[in-house]
Amino acid sequence: YVYRVVKAFENNGSGVRGDMKAIIKAILLDYEARSPAIVNQQRFGKQKEPLLRISAIARAFLPSAPLSATYQQTDGFITFTTTTPHQLANENYILINVTSGSPSPATGGTYRITKSNIKAVTSTTFAVEVKEVLPLTYSQSGNTVTATMTTGTHGLTTGHKVFVKFLTGGLANGLYPINYISTTQFSFTVANSATLTGTAIGVKHSGGYTMAANNATVAITCATNHHLTSGDMAYFSFTPVSGQTTSPTNGLYPVTVVDDTNLTINNSAGALPSSRSGTIVMSPQNPILSFSGNATTAYSTYTVGDTDTDLGQTPMRSPTVFNFYMPDYQFPGTLATNKMVTPEFQLSSDTNVIRQSNFIYEGIFKPSGNSPISSFRSGNGTLALDFTKWLGNRPSTTVPWTDNANISALIDELSTLLTSGQLSSQAKAIISNYVTTLSYTTGAATEIQRRDRLRAIIHLITTSPDFTIQK
């Protein structure tokens, strides 16, 4: 095939070299690219690289374009209202891009929709927890208030000051120096003595700081939007990097805003003789906790990260200039005995094959909530898969795709989508026999029953040899 394309490059048949029309014609019309007979030859084709298997699945079930939404932040939650149904469920991940807001834009980025027992999801609304807000319950005994996180950990240590807003109970809002109890509990002292319980929120920003030698200015970068304006007061606690014994002085400082996440303060102890850096915990003296505006929501974050362990390769990180494998690699055993060069099989160790299969499973079946949206990695929204099209009725019928009457047709359609129709009859029979054993109420199937049948079919196809080997 390559030889014939090269010959077309060298001579288009009329003595012309480099004729692109002739080259493209040679590529697209060659019998290896067109002939069905070639597909049936055992030596024809190659194994898809793991990353290409994942991208093929992602492309086959690509979600819709980002949705427009309005948002309203009140204390510890941001509620989004989309212009069309969003198809999400509790605990799905979602990517938020804030486009406008008042008094200032809320922080965008990746969020996990709240659990169902916290905020219910409707077809056009969902809520997320504010990243810089600590959700708390509290109990007061005498002058001591003990606060407990309702979800997550607080990330504070003794001496940090954190702004606390009491949602019930009537205690005074303000900055309180805390005493560490555990990763989920801390205590502080209030002016009035009482015995009561209630709910509250804390406001805590995390980030990093740098300070140049002989310069009192401390540059601070917050992990989320700080929502401050120049002149606002905020309490800072500084933790130097390992090896440094001095840092800026903890305390309440007026800030100078650089942008939404960057600001500066002047170290109260003045300049230090050498540069300093580390992490900060910051809590505003009077935080703004109510925002509204417009945003767009997207299903995929594309933050794939390192997949060497999961897939045997990570995008843009091949170990050689050739690729993730050597071009003359021969897989030991029958393939090598028959002198077959199989470069991609260099990634097919026993361990890698199982890990790749698990990675595909985790992307198709998670999260487990009642939504047609699944995602890699393990449901965290990296690459979202939208199964909506296959959960409704088969076109021109009133019967769902996943009912027994349509299972064979559904497998054929997905075979065309994922394997160019090359799924073997034996594989189709195995898949059909398996999915019809799953719990299913014919004629009145629940959304979860339809979704689980569909997921099983997709999983079995995408882990089959017919999908793994590209022909």
Write a structural description.
Helix content is 23%, strand content 31%. Strands 15-14-18-12-13-17-16 form a 7-stranded antiparallel sheet, with no helix packed on it. It has a 6-stranded antiparallel sheet with strand order 5-4-19-2-3-6, with no helix packed on it. Strands 7, 8, 9, 10 and 11 form a 5-stranded antiparallel sheet that branches. It has helices at 2-10, 20-29, 31-34, 36-39, 50-60, 308-311, 334-337, 350-365, 388-391, 407-419, 425-435, 447-462, 465-468, and strands at residues 46-47, 67-74, 77-82, 93-102, 109-112, 125-129, 133-149, 161-166, 174-177, 179-182, 185-203, 205-211, 217-222, 233-240, 251-254, 256-257, 262-266, 276-284, 290-298, 373-376, 383-386, 469-470. The protein is an alpha+beta fold and 471 residues long. It starts with a helix and ends with a strand. It is globular. It contains 13 helices and 22 strands. The relative contact order is 0.13. A hairpin with a 5-residue loop joins strand 12 (205-211) and strand 13. Helix 11 runs antiparallel to helix 12.
Radius of gyration: 29 Å
Which class of secondary structure composition applies to the elements? alpha+beta
Tally of strands: 22
Q: What is the overall silhouette?
A: globular
User: Residue-averaged pLDDT, rounded?
Assistant: 93
Strand content: 25-35%
Main beta sheet strand tally, sense and closure: 7 strands, antiparallel
Indicate the low-confidence ranges by residue numbers. Answer: none
Q: Please list the strands of the largest sheet in the order they lie side by side.
A: 15-14-18-12-13-17-16
Distance between the termini: 14 Å
The tally of helices reads: 13
Helix content range of the residues, please? 10-25%
